[in-house]
TrEMBL record:
NCBIfam families according to UniProt: amidohydrolases (TIGR01891)
PANTHER family according to UniProt: PEPTIDASE M20, XAA-ARG DIPEPTIDASE
SUPFAM superfamilies documented for this protein: Bacterial exopeptidase dimerisation domain (SSF55031), Zn-dependent exopeptidases (SSF53187)
Phylogenetic lineage: Bacteria, Pseudomonadati, Bacteroidota, Cytophagia, Cytophagales
GO BP, one annotated term: folic acid catabolic process
Pfam families: M20_dimer, Peptidase_M20
InterPro entries for this protein: Amidohydrolase, Aminobenzoyl-glu_utiliz_pB, Bact_exopeptidase_dim_dom, Peptidase_M20, Peptidase_M20/M20A_hydrolases, Peptidase_M20_dimer
Origin: domain of life: Bacteria
Coiled coil residues, start to end: none
Protein name, per record: Amidohydrolase
Amino acid sequence: MSVASLSVLAQTPPTLTKQQQTVLSGLETQTSHYGTLARQIWDWAEVGYQETKSSALLQDELRKQGFAITPGVAEIPTAFVATYGSGKPVIGILAEYDALPGINQDAVPERKPIEGKRAGHACGHHLFGTGSVAAAVAVKQWMQQTGQKGTIRLYGTPAEEGGSGKVYMVRAGLFNDVDAVLHWHPADRNSADPSTSLANITAKFRFRGVSAHASAAPDRGRSALDAVESMNYMVNMMREHIPSDTRVHYVITRGGEAPNVVPDYAEVYYYCRHKNRNTLKQVWARIMKAAEGAALGTETKMEVEIIGGVFDLLPVESLARVMYQNLSKVGGVTYSPEETQFAEKLSESFGAAFGSIRKPGEAATVAPFAGISNDPLSGGSTDVGDVSWAVPTVGMSAATWVPGTAAHSWQAVAAGATGIGTKGMMVAAKTLALTAMELYQNPALLQKARQEWLEARGGTDFNYEALLGNRKPALDYRK
């Protein structure tokens, strides 16, 4: 399908029913309103488990629209569930709203950090949360107007970035009665493939030694920083002897305060990922041995806190095809002349590190549908993975960023606060709304999806055990 054809579809899609046209028109009229909400969350840029204002804003919006709100679910103050309707089917929509620490950027196409700001929405979760709320409200209004039976449920899910917020919500049984879950994610393209992701375990390793004067009495000290560096050295040597598609990365979060004092405390924060959970567990056990060996060799004490752990995404191709068909009806993002100028200027900053340069006009297209692949091309991880093993789940991406933009970049932060981000967000909201409507109206789709999902999960004998164990939510992991 050509770009021109998609543009026509986005304006007056010939395959839309009158009800669908009404829902899409209603969402279009609310673009400015939802854009304002998203921009407010972008301004706040609250990190995982600290999204107090962002969560409250979305809850207030849903409450005004007639949803019943249950705040503070799964022992997480910023998590919530918003419900409208009753009975079956139950369709859930996920909403995220946490920012990333250590990166920020103004809404301009050249590098310009905002002084004093310590976090930014480099993954677009301000759009994710707001767009999902927009979709849920649109579905609620449609149900109200048509008398459609069932339940629409919006899940406010904090701390996706390393905090595994959804895992605790799955563990608490909040998805047990749901028939299907819909989600989306900001990106530099529009797609709805049955993609997978990497399972992930994250932890903070803390070493405690003995402080001493680094010059006058070094023999009396036992360096916690030496332990961290020893662990990192062993893990880095281990990379040669683990599956090549494993991903291990870390940052030293504490390394001492002054060079002339032997550090008695140091901390390193690790991520380990693999597409196979069992392989991940095996590699993680070796990382644990490296930490234990580092403590033994440096005569320090080690403690480990598992911060997060997420499953790989379990794709359901039949649901993905439904999502794709609706995304194709909605179409992509058409830039205004000013937005095109912004995109072209921003593209100049990509360089070789971002791969091949893509044209801004690609945001107007929808990527061809691709079947299930066992190779998680994105290389990322998400706590949506645990949800997908608890209930049939389907997602999509929308072009909220200029084509060619990398996630977790200042370019993503910049575009996410412009009309480019808002337009992409509304593509997602419209697609999610149409998909939910179709699932309500065609129970056979849900039955087919559930059967496919059960087979992919390994039958009814599957027993869910969170990778992070029984720990309580790591509410302070960003502090």
